[in-house]
Amino acid sequence: SDSHFPVPTSPRHVDYSLHYPHFFPSPESNSCSQKIEFADIGCGFGGLLISLATLFPDTLMIGMELRDKVTEYVKERILALRVSNPGQYQNASVVRTNSMKYIPNYFEKAQLSKMFFLFPDPHFKEKNHRRRVISPFLLDEYAYAIKPDGIIYTITDVEELGEWMKSCLEDHPMFESLTEEELEADPVVKLLSSATEEGQKVSRNGGQTFKAVYRRIVPAGQS
Ligand code: SAM
C-alpha cells in the first residue's frame, strides 16, 4: 500500500540530490533552478528513460512506477549505466509512487515539458474509469503540471483504450493535437514504441499501436 513509500509533501521537498547527485552534489544544492522536465508515468523497466537520457543529456527526467521490484530494477539499471558510461545517464532517475495520486506532490505548475503514458494498464472493468491514468479529471492535473507548449505522449496496443485516451485529450480545453508534420518531425514519437519494453513486445508480436500526442495549449492572451 501507499504507506510503504515516502511521498514528498510538495515539489520543493523532492530531494534532487538523491536522484541526480551529479547535478546536485548536496541537499543544499536543491535550491538550484534546474527542475525535472520529463516524467514517464508507469515507466515499467525504464527503456524510454534510457533512450531519452542520452538524447536530452541536459534535461532532468524521472520515471514513476508503482511496483517496488520494477522500480528497484530501473534504479539499478541507471546506476550501472552511470558507472559504465562516465558522465552519462546522470539526468535520469526513477521513483516508486502512485502517479494517480501524487503528481502534484512532485511537480509545480508548468514545470514539465514532456509527460509520457506508454502502454498503460487498460483497467476496462473498473466503474467510472476511475483507475485509468488518462481521464478528464487527471488531465486537469496534467494540464497544471505541463508547461504551455509542453507535450503529452500516449500509446497503447489496446484499441479501446487508445480511443478513450484520444477522446479525453480531444475534449479537454487545454490540449490540442499535433499535426502529422509535427509528429513526423518529433524524434521522440519514434521512441514511443521502439524504446519501451512493452512497445518492443507488441512489435515482436506484430501488434497494432494507437498513439495520441497532444500539446498543452498557451491560453489566449498569454503567448
Ligand atoms: N511504460 C512501460 C513500457 O511501455 O514498457 C511499462 C508499461 S506496463 C504495461 C504499465 C506500468 O505502469 C506497469 O509497470 C505498472 O506497474 C505501472 N503502473 C500502473 N499503475 C500505476 C500507478 N498508479 N502509478 C505508477 N505506475 C503505475
From TrEMBL:
<dbReference type="GO" id="GO:0000049">
    <property type="term" value="F:tRNA binding"/>
</dbReference>
<comment type="similarity">
    <text>Belongs to the class I-like SAM-binding methyltransferase superfamily. TrmB family.</text>
</comment>
<feature type="binding site">
    <location>
        <position position="118"/>
    </location>
    <ligand>
        <name>S-adenosyl-L-methionine</name>
    </ligand>
</feature>
<feature type="binding site">
    <location>
        <position position="42"/>
    </location>
    <ligand>
        <name>S-adenosyl-L-methionine</name>
    </ligand>
</feature>
<comment type="pathway">
    <text>tRNA modification; N(7)-methylguanine-tRNA biosynthesis.</text>
</comment>
<comment type="function">
    <text>Catalyzes the formation of N(7)-methylguanine at position 46 (m7G46) in tRNA.</text>
</comment>
<keyword id="KW-0949">S-adenosyl-L-methionine</keyword>
<feature type="binding site">
    <location>
        <begin position="98"/>
        <end position="99"/>
    </location>
    <ligand>
        <name>S-adenosyl-L-methionine</name>
    </ligand>
</feature>
<dbReference type="GO" id="GO:0005634">
    <property type="term" value="C:nucleus"/>
</dbReference>
<keyword id="KW-0539">Nucleus</keyword>
<protein>
    <recommendedName>
        <fullName>tRNA (guanine-N(7)-)-methyltransferase</fullName>
        <ecNumber>2.1.1.33</ecNumber>
    </recommendedName>
</protein>
<feature type="active site">
    <location>
        <position position="121"/>
    </location>
</feature>
<keyword id="KW-0694">RNA-binding</keyword>
<feature type="binding site">
    <location>
        <begin position="65"/>
        <end position="66"/>
    </location>
    <ligand>
        <name>S-adenosyl-L-methionine</name>
    </ligand>
</feature>
<keyword id="KW-0820">tRNA-binding</keyword>
<dbReference type="GO" id="GO:0008176">
    <property type="term" value="F:tRNA (guanine(46)-N7)-methyltransferase activity"/>
</dbReference>
<keyword id="KW-0819">tRNA processing</keyword>
<dbReference type="GO" id="GO:0043527">
    <property type="term" value="C:tRNA methyltransferase complex"/>
</dbReference>
<feature type="binding site">
    <location>
        <begin position="196"/>
        <end position="198"/>
    </location>
    <ligand>
        <name>S-adenosyl-L-methionine</name>
    </ligand>
</feature>
<keyword id="KW-0808">Transferase</keyword>
<keyword id="KW-0489">Methyltransferase</keyword>
